[in-house]
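Form 7-S
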Amino acid sequence: MTSSHIASRLCHWFSALAAPLDARSAPRLACLFLGAILARGRRTVTSWIRGAGLGPEFRPCYTTVAAAGRRTDRIAVRLVYEVVKPLLAGMSRLVLALDDTPTARYGRHVQGAGVHHNPTPGPAGGPFVYGHVWVVLGLLVAHPLWGVIALPLLARLYVRKVDLTAIDKTHRPQFRTKLELAVELVRWAKGWLDFVAAPLWVVADGAYAKAAFLRPLIGMGVVVVSRLRKDAALWTVPVARTGRRGRPRKYGEGRIALAKRAGQKRGWANGTFELYGKTVEKRYKTFEATWRPTGGAIRVVLVDEPTGWVAFFCTDVSATVADILGLVADRFSLETCFRDCKEIVGAGQQQVRHVWASVGSFHVCLWAFTMTEAWAWNRDEDALVAHRRASPWDDRPRRPSHADKRRAWRRELLARDIDAVLPVGTEHARIHELAERLLDLAA
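Output:
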């Protein structure tokens, strides 16, 4: 196989993640991981191929990306054990975040693409977007200095039933709703994250707070935290029966109206919580209730915000207000992950049409994000932002962004390649100096 000099000394993670593929395709996927890290400009698959030095064999590279799309579950298992596992030591609670995100595509022949709701239209965007929608499972890990970071592990492509007929029967996936895909992702995570002796919690957007999602997770022993609709049909907690035959009641006899509870002046309390990396004071009200989508009791938390009250719930009635509000705030790191994956890693920019090639290229972007964060986890912060020294006006103290970490990792990969071809000796100091300047420009 033709490849660059760097590809001959790939990071161990690249080879480990590519191992589930065929022996002929695995080295090529490892090189494409490297190309995804080194790619600049528009991060298409061709940019990955150029970055990995695989130009003469570009056609098999597209086949390799599609093969990775068919084996995402196996590759994600390697990601968990090779990359993520060292970051989970000492965790008392394992927290997963779930949400869906669209990637805009263009062209009629992109398989699986359709018209979907656009959650972030922006000033010039419309309410709908044509492209793919992905249900993404992320692991929330707290860094001692940088706060909570979402590490995407696995995703599922959601295709509307009306768009499935455009895909050839040989490659057509089975139709499943977003809720069914989310349950499938959590079931996969519970089976492969069992080496962590800690309870599993899932925090999801309010769109997933439905019986089709909640009851399977509760049956698996998973605790769920999410947003609660303001018109949710809640009932009181049933009183224990004494001296009467029959099964105990699941739901109380009294109806609970959240709007009335929020409008009552009594029962509110003030508390200080750590949210979004800051200490804030919130006015809240909490109580127990029963809700049919969960099939039992839940802990409800009402929060008085400047724009109005909002409601959240947890399927564990013993959960504290700090636990619930903290996880709701931590879920925002998954939204930040979506932004970085699209703007920095380039998710959705890959110009492929086949459904499995789209799945494979999207996952390569997700896994490149996770590997970059894991690589920078124990790195010195000053080393990650060393490029700012060339911009003395950029002296604002802030934590390294994902772009900083990606640039630092790219610089290290390129430095190894340059050092391998440069002669060693004090008489070549000028050559090394010029190589360092070239390295700064390239990375």
